[in-house]
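Ticket 4471: requesting a sanity check on a complex prediction with protoporphyrin IX containing FE. Repro inputs:
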Amino acid sequence: MDFGAVLFLLLIACISYMIVMYGKMLQKRGQLPPGPMPLPIIGNLLQVNTDNTAKSLIALSKKYGPVFTIHLGSKPRLILCGYETVKEALIDQAEEFGGRGPFPVFLNFTKGNDLAFSNGEKWKDLHKFVLQTLRNFGMGKRSIEERIQEEVQFLITELRKTKQLPFDPTLIFGRAISNVIFSVVFGSRFNYEDKTFRTIVSTINENFHIISSFWGTMYNIYPEIMDYLPGPHKKLFANHEVQRVILQDAVKAHQETLDPDSPRDFIDAFLIKMQKEKKNPTTSFFTESLIMTVHTLLYGGTDTVTTTLRYGVLILMKFPEVAEKIQEEINQVIGQNRPPAMEDRKKMPYTDAVIQEIQRFASISPLALPHLVMQDTQLKGYKIPKDITVIAVLASVHHDPAHYEKPEVFNPANFLDEKGCIKKNDALMIFSAGQRICPGENLARMEVFLFFTTLLQNFTFQPLGSREDINLTPVGSNLENLPQPYQCCAIPR
Ligand code: HEM
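Returned structure tokens:
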């Protein structure tokens, strides 16, 4: 048979395969909640703007309702929009909707040996351990609060060095926030000039950029194909490997100096747990799960809080009257002679409300991480099959008109009652909800409060141009809503 004939037969085989797969996809689609008609191979990629997936999904929900199906590539995703629907799924059916769906940019590295991308017994064991360790262990001799207070003072010193000149807060905030989770995990903070520290921070940062880019999105949709293609996604895995080597070395150093009666940090606590479980053949605690869980904590604990601070400062520059009111509250409750403490928060309802509104407005984690349905169930009258991937659009909860009068407007009054006291609003799910709710929630809340108040106790932030020109629209992505890049000046008070 000549080459042309072989090529022709291969083409026919490919087309037939595609037709069969497409037929199967349509058959399956018939059993799922409604949604736009998918095309072969690309699914609904033409209807979803991957630069701002959350926005596209919210727009599609206006046509298809709060529960609908879209195909990214040939795989279906169940989309949940609005507070009631997300609550009914993630909270009222926490077990059923509590699995973790595939997210290959991480999963293909961690292989499900970590907390964020595991399922079943391993996830349960790691989840319980991480929560307990973060909670009762103020991490060694000093509490987490003290560690944050210490780090924010280092940040203040760095900001004074800017001498009121313009700077981009991304790196300067990022280093301080990274140091908090590093201190929890490794036992002590790093000097900002430390080579290892700089390598981890810069590779994590670079990976967030790649994951949020076209290449990261394509890798998540077509991992099997992308593995064979060149592109920036290759750097993603090279960076993961660099981080693995650093973490391996840290674990080894901890092993050599471990005192089982006096754990210094998260790694020590994990090593002690590994020793206790040595004889259990199905244990979830082994060296690889330690390295991968630390890896996930570093990722979970850096960019999220940094982005919240960056977005917050931008918003406060747009609304200086809000920043001034916070500073008045700081003057009344804390003054200038001591650092803010968590105790202060309940006496500072206005500041508390502004922080909640910043988090709602910015919705920095607009789609949470993908969930997985663990058993056949029902939602809003639809049959939902086991194993389907679910995207809970948290941004839609935060912009739900049934719960916020003008969702597009920044308004701290969303969280204040007539007397100026804090008003709870259930439609605030910045840390998601249900079984997979962020285990770093308490740590993050502390960080955000202590960093914001200490920053505003010491500085007023000024934009380079006029406040009217500040654009608060997020630079959207799949993973994070980022603020528009900006520079500002920190003017000492
Ligand atoms: C303002 C800061 C933060 C925000 C907005 C945030 C938000 C989130 C969200 C939305 C999820 C996905 C939950 C889901 O799948 O439904 C998540 C998961 C996670 N976060 Fe956070 N997070 C923050 C800070 C942190 C910190 C400081 C840590 C580290 C201690 C952390 C560690 C994790 C981990 C390990 C997961 C995966 C949990 C699991 O799959 O069981 N996060 N976070």
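Notes from triage: The pocket of protoporphyrin IX containing FE is lined by residues 100, 115-116, 127, 181, 296-297, 300-301, 304-305, 308, 364-365, 368-369, 430-432, 436, 438-440, 443-444, 448 (CB under 6 Å). Leaving this open until the requester confirms.
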